[in-house]
Amino acid sequence: MPDFTDNLKPASPGGPEILAEERRQSDVPVGELAQHLFPHHDFLGRQQRILHVLGQDPLFSKAKQMNLSRPERYQLGLARAKMLRRLADQHGWDAEDQSMSQYLCDDVSPYMVHYTMFPTTVREQGDEKQRAYWMPKIQAGEVVGCYAQTELGHGSNVRGLECQARWDPKTQEFELHSPTLTASKWWNGTLGRTANHAIVVAQLLLPKSPGSTEYANHGPHPFIVQIRDMKTHKPLTGIAVGDIGPKYGYAPMDNGYMLFDHFRIPHSAMLSNYSRVDPNTCTYSRPANPAVVYGSLTAVRASIIMHARLVMARAVTIAVRYTSIRRQFQDRDNNDKSAPELSVLDYPTVQIRILPLLATAFALHYTGAAMQALYANTRAQIDKGDFSKLAVLHAQSSGLKSLCTELAANSIETCRRAMGGHGFGGGSGFIQLNNDYLSKPTVEGDNWMITQQTASYLIKRMSSAVANKGKSQDEVEQTCRDWLSNEHNSNISPLSIFDSDEQLVQAFHRRSRDLTYRAYVEREVKKRSWNSLLIQLRKVSHAESQSILVTNFHIALNDSKSSPSPALKGHLQTLFRLFAYYTMDAEARDFVKANAVSDEDLDMLPGKIQELMAQIRPHAVKLVDSWMIPDFLLDSALGRSDGKVYEDLFHRAHRLNPLNEITFNPYYKSDEIVMGQGSDELKKIMAKL
Amino acid sequence: MPDFTDNLKPASPGGPEILAEERRQSDVPVGELAQHLFPHHDFLGRQQRILHVLGQDPLFSKAKQMNLSRPERYQLGLARAKMLRRLADQHGWDAEDQSMSQYLCDDVSPYMVHYTMFPTTVREQGDEKQRAYWMPKIQAGEVVGCYAQTELGHGSNVRGLECQARWDPKTQEFELHSPTLTASKWWNGTLGRTANHAIVVAQLLLPKSPGSTEYANHGPHPFIVQIRDMKTHKPLTGIAVGDIGPKYGYAPMDNGYMLFDHFRIPHSAMLSNYSRVDPNTCTYSRPANPAVVYGSLTAVRASIIMHARLVMARAVTIAVRYTSIRRQFQDRDNNDKSAPELSVLDYPTVQIRILPLLATAFALHYTGAAMQALYANTRAQIDKGDFSKLAVLHAQSSGLKSLCTELAANSIETCRRAMGGHGFGGGSGFIQLNNDYLSKPTVEGDNWMITQQTASYLIKRMSSAVANKGKSQDEVEQTCRDWLSNEHNSNISPLSIFDSDEQLVQAFHRRSRDLTYRAYVEREVKKRSWNSLLIQLRKVSHAESQSILVTNFHIALNDSKSSPSPALKGHLQTLFRLFAYYTMDAEARDFVKANAVSDEDLDMLPGKIQELMAQIRPHAVKLVDSWMIPDFLLDSALGRSDGKVYEDLFHRAHRLNPLNEITFNPYYKSDEIVMGQGSDELKKIMAKL
Hints:
The structure is a homodimer.
Chain A: H1 15-24, H2 30-37, H3 43-55, H4 70-91, H5 95-105, H6 112-115, H7 117-125, H8 128-139, E1 145-148, E2 164-168, E3 173-177, E4 185-188, E5 197-207, E6 215-226, E7 239-243, E8 256-260, E9 263-266, E10 276-277, E11 284-285, H9 291-325, H10 348-383, H11 390-418, H12 420-423, H13 431-437, H14 451-467, H15 475-487, H16 501-525, H17 534-557, H18 566-586, H19 588-593, H20 599-616, H21 620-625, H22 631-634, H23 645-656, H24 680-687
């Protein structure tokens, strides 16, 4: 409905002018940098191609979805998931096209586990016959599957699962049973309302001998189980299954619960590529090499880091654009009281929150890419039976998953607060991003817990290095030996972190080995209990991960293969130093204790950081542009690439808000809510409580 | 519907047993501590009394409200607000009863601004005649009001507001006008759908002389304006007003926008207790003493701190109870593989996240209480015309608001992550708490910005102390002089923080003065620009606020008036030290630089912190019990006082989740969403997009 607001414009300078000027005065080669960041698999071309398809379908419009209830968000999510699959059929999308379409849709898909963990498990854990039977049905979307491992009372400790699969030699069936409430499967995505099949992980109970009534527990094993009727989609008798209810984020996902009441499944339900039960003798044969599992875990974690860097880039894109446009207060030292207000991003207190995160997105990028490359190489070795690199890869990936998802999760909220009031509004584009991403510090290995794996590995290698027998088992042990011979010396000089990037990298490494050694002494020499060291071990892991991030960033800039142009390389070096100094400043004492950096240099860090931020500031807009996050994905009035911040905020409020279509009765003596409707609306709401 | 799950129980030991044992083995005197924390205005009795009323009314049931859409949440919020007001009439609730009822209801009320800022402004800024006219209508709920200051393009910088009130001497009216889109009022609570009146803050434009067509801007002033029809509740002509749409939190609140198109209001609309315009001469008379405004700001900030400590206590209550009950992994050093899993709270990596926050809730409590007392004293002096303490009170309250809301906001997410997977679920009781509270670091003075006020004040006092003329203006200046004479000396010995709580407190003070002095040197001696110092100034402010928190905590424990029993005092001292050591450890280098603590002592801090946490661990459940946060408010399966964590999580999922009442069609080739309903549901959802 037209009204007098239609002709109003924001005060000048407007966002489009401001962004144009920001872009004009920077020499960042956006095209080159974008290509540098996304060199593989035609990522940018694919993004544009899929974007074009989704942008035309009103089902993928995000404009008003924040007004839907949670049950409606699941329904919308299911409708979108179906449509994406139909579009994939129609356009002949390959696997990468499909994951691009899900990335741009930005809704977690109710089919998610059906596409990932479910078929992966069938492929890896199923034997040839099982794969041949199940995979075509899965690919056709006839079998819709999920993966049910975690239980109400049991998460990280898989050995503590309570759900049982007991072999009945008489009927030649397994009996799935949940003996307690805490044995209920819980959190399992796609299970709640969508799946008709599930991989169920249960304790395998076998008679101690063929005729025995005594059972032995062989630990958790995967079973493939039909859980709902293929026509009516109702749960089968003996199964209680449903959605666990609203969560922080992931509204379109039906995370589920499931209990079994002596539910019988055939012998063929047990996935038997590695473990088998002989149905006649009840004998059990073991996995050939469980390490393979770690291999794919590493691939998952590399992709988690690559995802984390896109999440950070997305948050920082919005924050940089908005704080460039937003004006607030004149310069306090300027005597001209008619001077224009300053761009918020000109304040060091805003820069210190946003620009180190911009640098961090790059740091994560180079390490994610390095891990993907390393995994690809290692995968080939694993396939040849060489598992020598698996342990270090697994150890590194644990610590990195922990640190990188922590950094990314925190970055969203840091950017949001840096944007002041509008950061709290729906136009920020942060609400769903934040609520969804906050799951990441917990899933795929709790961030605090998995640092133990990295630290444990490092302590073992340091122990071997101290023992110093034969040649080093791997490169990490070699670095421990080198550190012990050359750097583990109270008289060693600190490194020159401001004169040499190599020494800056070395400082991180020296500090990490120093912390490793201290942990080794506590555990192996002083024999302290493991649990009493947990806080220290997390620090060891983070220090190592920071060292890896700094190292890979430095290597990438000096890699002759990628060879960025001199202009680009200069900007990347500034970002590299900002990341390194900022990370160092936050944990400065460690670096002194390790004789890695002098106290005087550490005192200079805050000033150096501020200088680097001042260097990056004029290029911030083009640096975030280079990540090429489309407006469709940002879904943010504040972060629009065209700078129309205020126009869009007002449009969303004035024209897209369904609440404004209703006139309410504000007088407290009446229980009428909607003006003129009596108590009808109140009754409707009460019925939902 | 009864099913086989009805008879299932969680694996033992169950939550109730565990909590009973936790409570049995601790000597914390819960009743005494609760009385110690809530000694005034019968807080606990009132809580119980109001709880009883709300608990009986199904309108206040929180069980399923997370499934409502945002428009429904506003409707529910309005219905609850009306009911609370009717209950207040019915039961004769006083102001504190009413705010207790809102606290327990836990929904921000659409009437919120009508109860707070709106009448406060009329009372303080209105003249006698205006008060007499408006206050009875406001109290009767006939006039429903809000406070419209912030604009789309202008927040903290009030002088930058664009909305204009131009005096027309001919018609003797003001013309309210929004010249741009950025002049739109924005964020103003209660404005969007509820209010029929608003205090509008606009630039007062007066003719330079009675007949002149040139206008002078006299800055922002408040006007009381009818904005909607009293019968139809439709906006008056010349006003565009509405709700700004979904936000992170505050779903039941109609934060609004409003634009004026040459909208005319009478002379009497300008609130004229301090500023007046003579309608005949167009002359303007100025405020008597603008400092009074700061006075009430201090009161608001004291209450923000008291609220922050309840928010932290609430988060910590849930986290402590759940992590006591939750079991995960056996002790790695225990060779008995059948040993039970450990309570999660026994891990130092869980303790380090939760227990310092428990200590912090107490720290905030004592400082909030001290500020309230100080404000009450100062208020009496202000009323007598003595403004001498106002500056220090204002400066302290700015820094404390910043630090305390930051600590509280971060504490929610820290506790949530410490709870692992279930922390992400709706049963955590954290979702609404978090989403609502995240506004606090921004509102009532942006947390980063207002630290300038504290630092600016401290630098001024340090400048005067260095000048050393006459006697000190106030006690802060005196402490600067004392520090300059006694502690500003590179040879001074560090303090004995482990042997003496007095010296521990002194260490915080010495470090704060050291940072103040360094900032003074940069600004006043080296003449650095203000903006280049902002990061350092924030540090100055936080250091001073930490010093205040530690000081007030220490004073409260040694105050002869409150005199806790020896058992209680011992626990409080442990919490005091944990708070102090933990805070110090996070910023250890400052303390070395200030010669406040020796490097060796700082090295020992992590070990000392771990010891203190081990001392607190057995008492954690009873320490959180003492905050007496009712289950009704917690609304948390994880934090229930009876420990029935898993029973409640399952109940919410299996019996209260509306999504489980619908059977879906999971097959992608069909666009049917609800099984058997064709494409109807899809159409309904599409209509809402």
